[in-house]
Structure formats: C-alpha cells, structure tokens
Amino acid sequence: MAARTGIIVVGGGLAGISAAIEALHHTSHAAGVTITLLDKEARTGGNSAKASSGINGVLTGTQLNLGIHDSVDAFVQDTLKSGQGKANQTLVEKLASESTQAVSWLQRDFKLDLDVIAQLGGHSYPRTHRRPDLDGKPQPVGWGIVGALGKHLSELAGLENARFKLYTGARVVRLLTAEHGGVAGVVYETVDPDSKVIQQHTLLASAVVLATGGFGGEGSRPHYLKRYAPQLVGLPATNGAFATGDGLGLAVALGAELVDMDQVQVHPTGFVKRNDPGNPTKFLAAEALRGEGGILLNALGRRFVNELDTRDHVTDAINKLCSAPDTRARHSAGVDVVAGEPSSAAFLVLSQAAANSFGHGALGFYEKMGLVQRAGSVEELSGMLRVDHGTLLKTLQDHDMARDSGLSDEFGKSTFPQNALNPLLPSGAGAEQQQLQYYWGVVTPSIHYTMGGVRFDDKTRVLRAADGAPIPGLLAAGEVTGGLHGANRLGGNSLLECVVYGREAGRQAAALVAEAS
Ligand SMILES: Cc1cc2nc3c(=O)[nH]c(=O)nc-3n(C[C@H](O)[C@H](O)[C@H](O)COP(=O)(O)OP(=O)(O)OC[C@H]3O[C@@H](n4cnc5c(N)ncnc54)[C@H](O)[C@@H]3O)c2cc1C
Ligand SMILES: *[C@@H]1O[C@H](CO)[C@@H](O)[C@H](O)[C@H]1NC(C)=O
C-alpha cells in the first residue's frame, strides 16, 4: 500500500523550505496533517544556499533605520522595467508589496541580521539586504537564510509525533494523477546505500508544491537549454549541477504550460579562476561587489558600461566590448592564451572604500579561492592588469570626477557608491597608506538564472496549457515558475520570490488539505 501524507513539497531550496514552514503554521496538530519535503540531493539548500548579494525588501525596518525613502511602487516599476514588458504585473505587485513582511519574517522569526543594504543594478534605491561580517568572518546570505529556516524544520522533524518529515536523496520522478485531472501524489526514487539498487516509492497527498528550482545547471547535458536557448549552450554557469529543471517535466506531464523558457539570465560576472580559467562552473562575483562600488574595466584599462545597469545590459556590454584580443581581460599569468579562457571577460576592480563596504570576510574568501588579488597602488595594479598606467589612472580619476559632479556619466551611471581611486594619505602616514589596496579579479558572463518555467498565478496554482485553468492540487514557487520576472530578473528578487511565493504555496496547500478532509 502506498504511503500517505497531507502535503508534499518537492525541493528543499528557499522556496520549498518556506512553503513547508508556512504549511505547518497553517495546519493543525489536532488534524494530524503531515508535511513531507523531498530533495534529491544529500542535503537541502539548492541554489538558494549559494546566494551572495541578498534579498530585496522595501519599507523594511532596516531601510527606515538607514533613512532610505523607497516605496512599493518604485520597486514595482523597477521590476517591470527590467522585465521588458514580459513580467506579469499582478505577480510583480504581490512580490513587491509583500517584500516588507518577507524580510521582517526572516529578521524577526529567524533572528537573521539582514542589516546591510546595497543598491544593485536596475534598482532605484538600495533595497537588497544581506548579512554583515561577524567577527571578521563572512556570513553568506543565502547560506544563512537556508540554514536558519532548515534548522527550524529539522528541530520540528526531530520532535515526537513530528508532523514534518524530510527525505533527502529522494528524487521525484513522476506526479500521480487523480481522477479529476489533478495531482494525487508523487513517485520518488532512492538509491540503497549498500547495494546501489534504485528503489521506487509512492507517496500520496492532497497537495503537491513544486519547488525544484531552475535549469541553469544542466551543464554538459543541456536539455531545456538546447531546446529553448541553444545559443547559450557551452557557456559556463554559476548553478549547482542539480538545477536540471526536473519540475518542468513533472508538471508538463500533467498538462502544465511553460512560459518564457527562452529567457535565460546570463550573469555578467562569473569569476575566472587564475589557475583554472576553463572550468565550466564559475564562482559568482556577487553583484554586491558592483553595488558597493566595484567597477568594470576592459583590457585597455577603460570603463565601458554603467556597472549598475541591469544584468542583461552589462552582459551584452562585456560580450560586445571585451571580446577582441586587445579588450579581453586576462590574468597576468605571463601566458598569452590559456586553454579554455573565456571569449569575453572584464576586470572587476574595487578600491579600498568599496572593499570596506562590501565586507572583508567575503572578500578574503574570494582571495583564498584564488579569484581576487590585491595591488598596493595604481602602478602595481596597472602592472598586474597589463594596462597602461596613465590610462588606468585617468579612468579612476574620471570615475571619481563624475561621482563628485552629482550628474550621470557617459555610460549613464548616476549612482556611484564609492570612489574608485584610493585617496593619497597625508605624508607621514606611510604605514597606513600601505594598507590602502585595490582588489581585482577577472569576470566573464555565466548562465545564472532561468526566468521561464511553469505558468502559475498569484495563488501559486500551476496553470494548464489547454485552458489556463489551475491543475487541482498542484502548486509551484521559486525558480521553477515563470512569468514573474519576464525578460530579466533583478538581483535580489529571487530569494524574495522564494519567500513570498513559497509561503503563499504553503498557505494554499494548507487550505487544500483542509478542504480534502
Ligand atoms: C551563485 C548564485 C548566487 C545567487 N545570488 C542570489 C542573490 O544574492 N539574491 C537572489 O535573490 N538570488 C540569487 N540567486 C538566485 C537564487 O539563489 C535562486 O534562484 C533561488 O534561490 C532558487 O530557489 P529555489 O528554492 O526555487 O530553488 P533551489 O534553491 O535551487 O532549490 C531546488 C531544490 O530542488 C531539488 N530538486 C530538484 N529536482 C528535484 C527532484 N526531481 N526531486 C527532488 N528534489 C529536487 C534540488 O536538489 C534543490 O535542492 C543566486 C543564484 C546562484 C546560483
Ligand atoms: C498575470 O497573473 C494574473 C494573476 O495570476 C492573471 O490573472 C493574469 O491573467 C496574468 N496576466 C497575463 C498577461 O498573463
């Protein structure tokens, strides 16, 4: 006989975890509703655990404390503009108007110190919240959020008569259909650790939440990418290899519609590792590096773009303007052509002031990984980048002049978070001057996020291709869904969608269980 649970959540990234927590909150012990979360990996967290720039929120306590006069409307407009007419306004409005609660839920209920705010590309105010260093150590934001929420869930799972169950190493391979065309449960596979034999299990439920993430991690076995965005096959990616779009196939088998599948976000700044330039998996250079004042240079030592433009525009600029032999940034390994070097790449450079506001914990981590190097002066920097010293100096000075002018510069940049040139300290302060550094790395566009996915509505119901009606019992949240971001996702909007729509899915699932009993 098949096992039965009240609600199944497929995928243990931030969307799935948020859904599970909220579903528990809205179902009762008395009714004995159980919630089962399945993740195919050995541990939960997904791509959510990798997030490094932060989560968006407007009118949050943190924004108010810092005197940032943002609004829901400004956030909606920025998101719609970035979506280039393809983002669904109803879905965007819900995202923005519930962002205040989403951030305060994390801050209050899970004691997360999301008190550092950056202004990322395409945003008209600083609204992307992340965590400060603690005792000089970085506290990566995605890791921290998933960790705190996951800890809460595992404590619940450990209780006697626990209503919450977590199965890791459990890959969902099929959704079961109910008589009315809805979902009746899932089939999942586990691998016996000793015999390595694959075992199939059936689990029935009144509601299934798909939270399986995107398909940006298909890597050398492109399936959706090959079909919908073949021009990107072969690009490096920032995603984990588990991000293979499983939820899309599961939902389509029940008649779900897919939308915006060709809208794949290429992040402008995946780090090119000095001694491993050809690795297809790139460590992300967090957008907050630019949000805190990092600038981009071509191999001639010149700026070429508004670093705080949206990701699609910055990516286009790197591809167009940093791909010729003399404009493509390279490491100064002394080797001219390293096998596997990306075809377009730029230098990312931070002044000491930018580094200070980004935080030395995370920066030190990049250094340790061989992604970022230091230079003690413009002269040393120009030597390392192999660019003309005068050109580089002028680039940094021009940036700072534009910053001082209060106007926008030739690239349309109007927000200049920090100076690019380290100030000269008064003579006699030699020891201190030694400490003012430049931090730099080589970055290249990398597949990062898939805007497309299953069509869903503001109640997270998955919609059918045939008639647009909801598939009974089937909900979805997070990167597996499409239609919210349109043609380009703003930085910080994904963690936010996971919380807003993950929690909504949890509430909807709870309501479905109540109906069924
Ligand atoms: C390097 C990096 C940095 C990022 N930084 C930010 C940031 O700063 N701010 C921001 O807003 N966004 C950021 N993003 C994007 C964001 O982290 C993700 O898009 C988002 O967290 C996706 O969450 P999710 O819950 O939908 O999916 P995921 O977190 O990817 O979780 C999906 C889970 O589903 C599981 N799964 C998949 N298929 C199955 C199956 N068949 N059966 C069972 N389980 C399955 C996977 O194992 C995985 O654990 C970043 C992304 C990356 C890669
Ligand atoms: C946007 O989403 C809403 C709510 O889910 C839905 O009613 C509407 O039809 C969608 N609009 C478009 C253009 O898809």
UniProtKB/TrEMBL annotation:
Gene3D superfamilies to which the protein is assigned, alphabetical: FAD/NAD(P)-binding domain (3.50.50.60), Succinate dehydrogenase/fumarate reductase flavoprotein, catalytic domain (3.90.700.10)
InterPro entries: FAD-dep_OxRdtase_2_FAD-bd (IPR003953), FAD-oxidoreductase_2 (IPR050315), FAD/NAD-bd_sf (IPR036188), Flavocytochrome_c (IPR010960), Succ_DH/fumarate_Rdtase_cat_sf (IPR027477)
Pfam family, one: FAD_binding_2
Catalytic class of the enzyme: oxidoreductase
Zinc recorded as keyword: no
GO molecular function: FMN binding; fumarate reductase (NADH) activity
Domain FAD-dependent oxidoreductase 2 FAD-binding residue range list: 7-495
EC code: 1.3.1.6
Catalytic activity: succinate + NAD(+) = fumarate + NADH + H(+)
Similarity section: Belongs to the FAD-dependent oxidoreductase 2 family. FRD/SDH subfamily.
UniProt-recorded name of the protein: Fumarate reductase
